[in-house]
Design goal:
Structural class: mainly beta
Number of strands: 72
Keywords: Cell membrane, Developmental protein, Differentiation, Disulfide bond, EGF-like domain, Glycoprotein, Membrane, Notch signaling pathway, Phosphoprotein, Repeat, Signal, Transmembrane, Transmembrane helix
Distance between the termini: 156 Å
Strand content: 25-35%
Disulfide bonds: 26-35, 64-73, 102-111, 140-149, 178-187, 251-260, 290-299, 329-338, 367-376, 405-414, 421-431, 442-451, 480-489, 523-532, 561-570, 599-608, 637-646, 678-687
Membrane topology: Single-pass type I membrane protein
Subcellular location: Apical cell membrane
Pfam families: EGF, EGF_CA, EGF_TEN, hEGF
Shape: elongated
Number of helices: 1
Largest sheet: 2 strands, antiparallel
Radius of gyration: 52 Å
CATH superfamily of the domain at 160-264: Laminin
Helix content: under 10%
């Protein structure tokens, strides 16, 4: 007999006839003696990289997480396919995003921005930096030269001091120490030694080169002492005070020496003024070039490299000194910035000679013949002889097998029929066991597959003449309308009319309406029956899917859905990005029951709701005030400074000294300010006051006589009595 003639093998499988039996060779996705059982491919975690597996008859399907594709979600989507990187940059495909390796001179997320080579402030001594493509140029202030404005121009090289004067070089300036008898910025003017009126008692003064002579009136003789300050010996803006034994120079800030000829080196005067940088001396000051990782006027502030969020894919950043930071990567990532996917095959997870193929967050084992399973740990040969009986499905397990029995069978080989009556399923009746099931012989008054339903003897409406039927176990009771009596209210009773609602027959809050010899109950939502005695269980049909919790309400149900699902019955997969959680232009990437925000333009935080403080690094120098903006900042500079970072000194002398220094005075620019060197006869910060008017208000006390003095700081001296 050909047992295959009846086509016992299902779902396209092949039947092979044998003596008194047959064997079915199943197609993919099916198992069992007749290939009638669907294999649940999802039990082997076949979907990779967080994909959700859905079993289908004879097959399966994977719903992939964002950033992955392929039948098993094994392929990472190519984020570089749209060529996002500009200006010759190289695109690196990463998880959910890409990274652009920019060519020289370009920066930004897609290499569309020109690198600002001036950001490190390379131009020294107040030079103005001009940024160009892949290079910069320094425009030096007057007095400096060199590619970085690092060289002080020797203003004495041209020999500006004449008549034997000695030249002392300054910053964009020089000063001349004149020989006796000469004065002026370049010693070209003959000094009038008679200006101080040295001849007393009406003597006549005659000027000479570096000297004078007195023609005395009758009765007087002698010569006046020489004024030691007459030759202007104090250089670089120093003030000369004449005395009995000579002169004393009071030097301007930044200078010292007998004639104020020595510039003070502030880098040597202070102990380590630049904590983590190199000190460069200036006239009356210094500036610091900071090493990598430090900032501030004295290079004492450590730059927090973690503010730029360098650690990718959720890595935690730890700031260290000297421009260094470390990233603690989440599982599955590695590299300095957590930018590399870990090789999960390094732990050798595939057994029995299986070959491991690395993927993103996961791996795949390609098993040798005979071995199956996610780790090639199951011997498929163990099921070759079909040891499982009564339609049981065989699954390899190590070097053995496991039988998955059809309902109604149990045991190692599915050889034992299950006694379904052991759990006493018949509540009000006797259980009779059958293969893969049972039958209940119900007691009187009960029906249903479990004898759990009371027979409604009121269903046949036995109560007549408007009587209300109340069901009981294996019986009923009639509440008769007024005027009737009997088991079925079929007997007329002569009595007075009464209010049938007086006994409050309506249950569970139902409203009673009295009628002629009867009443009607109007039930609250969720209740039914003539007396509103039945509570409707809206959760009995298990309407909530995907693990949702059902709440039975009076007039319906409500589902409490797990994370990632929504809808009335939890059947809708929730796109966590629908609520637009990423603020301020952030880009949202939906994950399984979660989301990731990619922030742009000066924003950070889980939802891009925390503004990045661009002033945190104190970019404004020389006392400038920083005003934070969105992905930018503005420096408000104090008087004497300008530039993006207040790094440039305003040259008050460049537009003409007459704007500041008056009456022919010489203007000297210094860092953040200026100094006026007054000509003979003038005093004041801007040389605005004539010394010859110094005695107008007679400032000398106690009868002292005021005398105009050319070399006095105040412009006068008092001759005391």
């Amino acid at each position: 007999i050909n047992e295959c003639a009846s086509n016992p093998c299902q779902h396209g499988s092949t039947c092979v006839d044998a003596v008194n039996w047959y064997r079915c060779y199943c197609t993919d996705g099916w198992t069992g003696d007749n290939c009638a059982q669907d294999i649940n491919e999802c039990s082997q975690n076949i979907c990779q990289n967080g994909g959700v597996c859905s079993n289908t008859p004879g097959s399966y399907s994977c719903t992939c997480s964002p950033g992955f594709s392929g039948a098993n979600c094994e392929a990472n989507s190519d984020d570089c396919a749209s060529s996002p990187c500009k200006n010759g940059a190289v695109c690196e495909d990463l998880l959910f995003q890409f990274n652009c390796v920019c060519a020289a001179g370009w920066d930004g997320p897609t290499c569309e921005g020109n690198v600002d080579e001036c950001s490190s402030s390379p131009c020294q001594n107040g030079g103005l930096c001009l940024d160009f493509f892949n290079y910069f140029n320094c425009t030096c202030v007057e007095g400096y030269t060199g590619s970085l404005c690092e060289i002080d121009i020797d203003d004495c090289a041209s020999g500006p001091c004449v008549n034997g004067g000695t030249c002392r070089d300054g910053v964009n300036s020089f000063s001349c120490s004149c020989t006796a008898g000469f004065t002026g910025n370049d010693c070209s003017e003959d000094f009038d030694d008679c200006l101080s009126n040295p001849c007393q008692h009406g003597g006549t003064c005659q000027d000479g080169l570096g000297q004078y002579s007195c023609t005395c009136p009758s009765g007087w003789h002698g010569t006046q002492y020489n004024d030691a300050c007459a030759s202007y010996p104090c250089g670089n803006g120093g003030t000369c005070n004449d005395g009995p034994t000579g002169y004393v120079c009071i030097c301007a800030p930044g200078w010292m020496g007998t004639d104020c000829e020595l510039e003070i080196n502030e880098c040597q005067q202070h102990t380590n003024p630049c904590h983590f940088g190199t000190c460069h001396d200036l006239v009356n000051g210094f500036y610091c070039n900071c090493t990598v990782g430090w900032e501030g006027d004295s290079c004492g502030t450590d730059i927090n490299e973690c503010l730029s969020q360098p650690c990718m894919f959720g890595g935690a950043c730890t700031n260290e000194i000297n421009g260094i930071y470390t990233c603690s990567c989440l599982p599955g990532f590695q590299g300095h910035d957590c930018e590399q996917d870990q090789n999960e095959c390094n732990s050798n997870p595939c057994m029995n000679g299986g070959v491991c193929t690395d993927g993103l967050f996961s791996y795949t084992c390609n098993c040798r013949p005979q071995w199956v399973g996610a780790h090639c740990s199951y011997d498929s040969a163990a099921c070759a002889n079909s040891p499982c009986q009564n339609g049981g499905s065989c699954t390899p397990s190590g070097g053995s097998f496991t039988c998955r029995c059809l309902p109604g069978w149990s045991g190692q080989y599915c050889q034992t029929e299950t006694n379904e009556c052991a759990s006493n399923p018949c509540l009000h009746g006797q259980c009779i066991d059958v293969v893969n099931g049972y039958n209940c012989d119900c007691d009187l008054g009960w029906i249903g597959s479990h004898c759990n339903q009371n027979i409604d003897e009121c269903a046949s409406s036995p109560c007549q003449n408007g009587g209300v039927c109340r069901d009981q176990v294996n019986g009923y009771v009639c509440s008769c309308s007024a005027g009737f009596t009997g088991t079925n209210c079929d007997l007329i009773e002569s009595k007075k009319y009464t209010n049938e609602c007086a006994s409050s027959p309506c249950q569970n809050g139902g409203t009673c309406t009295d009628g002629d010899f009867t009443f009607t109950c109007t039930c609250l939502p969720g209740y039914t029956g003539a007396l509103c005695e039945t509570d409707h269980d809206y959760c009995s049909s298990q309407p909530c899917s995907n693990g949702g919790t059902c709440l039975d309400l009076q007039n319906g149900h409500s589902c409490i859905c797990p994370v990632g699902y929504g809808g009335n019955d939890c059947t809708r997969y929730v796109d966590d990005c629908l609520s637009n959680p990423c603020q301020n232009g952030g880009s949202c990437v939906d994950m399984l029951h979660a989301y990731i925000c990619r922030c742009f333009g000066g924003w950070t935080g889980i939802n891009c709701d925390e503004k990045y403080d661009d002033c945190a690094s104190n970019p404004c120098r020389n006392g400038g005030t920083c005003q934070d903006g969105v992905n930018s900042y503005t420096c408000r500079c104090p008087p004497g400074w300008y530039g993006t970072h207040c790094e440039l000194d305003v040259d008050e002398c460049s537009s003409g000294s007459s704007l500041y220094c008056q009456n022919g005075a010489t203007c000297e620019n210094i860092q953040g300010s200026y100094t006026c060197h007054c000509g003979a006869g003038w005093i004041g910060n801007n040389c605005e006051t004539s010394k010859y008017y110094a005695c107008t208000n007679n400032p000398c006390s106690n009868g002292g006589t005021c005398q105009v003095s050319q070399n006095s700081v105040q412009g006068f001296q008092c001759l005391c009595q």
